[in-house]
Design goal:
globular; mainly alpha
Length: about 575
Amino acid sequence: ALASTSSSWVDSLRHSSSSILAGRAAAAARAAADKRSSTGGPTKVTVDRTMVEALVKEHAKELSMLAPEARRTRIRELVAEHLAAQGRASLALPVSAASLRSAALGKHLDSERSVDQRLLLEWMLVLVRIMSFTGEMRTLGAAVAVNKVWKGALTRSGSTLAKKLWKWNIRFGEEIRCRGRWSYWKRLLSQHPESARRLKTLTNEDFQTCLKKGQSDPSLQEARSVIAADLPRTFAFLFAPSSAAAASASSEDLRGGALEGEGSRRSPLLLLRPPAAPETAGAAGSLSSLGLAGDGIREALERILVAVAADNPSIGYCQGLDIIAAFALSVALESGLDLPKAEAEVFTFVATSLELEYIRSWLEPPLFGLRAAAAAVAGLLQERQPRLVEHLRSEGAGMELLCLAWLQTLFSNCSPLPRASLCRIWECWLNDGTPKIFFQTALALFQQAEPALLHEPLEVISEVLRTFPPPLDAALAPEELIARAAGTKVSASCVRSAIAKAEVALRTAATTTAPSSAPAAPLQQQQQRKPQEPELLLDLDFSSTASPPRHGVGGRGGYPQSAEPPELL
């Protein structure tokens, strides 16, 4: 009910905010009048000129942008705040909305506050509760712009309470409409210092510059060759229907519209698939009617990957990056962007997201960071589901390899995963700035699949993790999956600690298994198990840099790209 009448209650709350501020100002005026009447006139305060000069110098940058009258008023406010902090008599100045908000919300909940500050805090807590109840990101974004007090209380950088509110809404709130998702993703990405700098500097001209460099630089010839060879296999995977629902999808579903209802069960990359039936090709909103046939998107994706390779020579091109870029491109197209503009924005988005924590190390050869992350998942799973880990080891299924493709593509190649669930996972990642949600999701998937994996042979294990057959697929809906992932209680610091331990273990293993010093018996055991590992990887739909043929599911099998021999994987 509140969501459907958001405009009316936002207006009423705005009037309530004005009434509170007006009442506070009236109370301050009466107190000042009473003080003047009791003392026979206004209170005179002696101000040290040196103190004023120091304050002006400290806030020179802020004051330089103000008009003369506003500058004088601001200087008086700074002096009043300084005197109040020293416990001296304050000048009779009106308190700004920003300072009132800071005094009310910038403290712990159990800190001492004046009556008006406590009233404002309690009122803001009610406002936050209402915003959590509605769970609408559009309403929350509109409420931030009501006034300065609301902005300070509800913006992500305003207070700890506001950060938790946004985090809760992103996880469990209403789904963001597809038309506004792309701009919302860019806004989430811009809130992190490490990515904000790149996001501000990269422009459409930079995309064209990187594209020309990628197409002509001799040092990138190998990356261009691998991209050109890999994209046909990528699109063979993307265009292969992942379910009966995908095969019978309508043109309206293909283009997007809203992702509510049936859209939440669409495959993550369904948007890039061509219309299923010829009679739907001319329907309004279909990919064909927009001139976005498979070849056009493939060429656009190739240009994006070549430009990213030129912008990031330490990565060049890594398999898995094509699936990430394809999913980002589908979201950009779904928002209504034309293909040329979507190309430039997806390039900026992908190049910027590489600056987020650990992502670059997952794609840089020799993929040491990716193997450490997969080993960290294995360590976390060992703590939570030791029976499952023991059974997988007894079947010869290396735990690190089971989730390697999930992490390498940020879950974009997980075909059973609904598109709405993948979008929610990425939104949690972009909001948090750490890969915590990917570890939580992997643990949640193993937890959900544990009853179907225990006591089963290797072939069944690989098939279950590849397809998540009914009734397991019911737990992949966003409301179920995100709730289960959040329930794993894995924090960002826990992820960092697990990755650090895994890195140490990998370096130690690489040293002890060198040909000159490797023990004979363990090496023989590894060689005996090696013929099983490619079979498992092919069944689980992993990427590969091995020479053709790639005969796995969807034509994408083999080992992940690495400059090191497969034995170390």
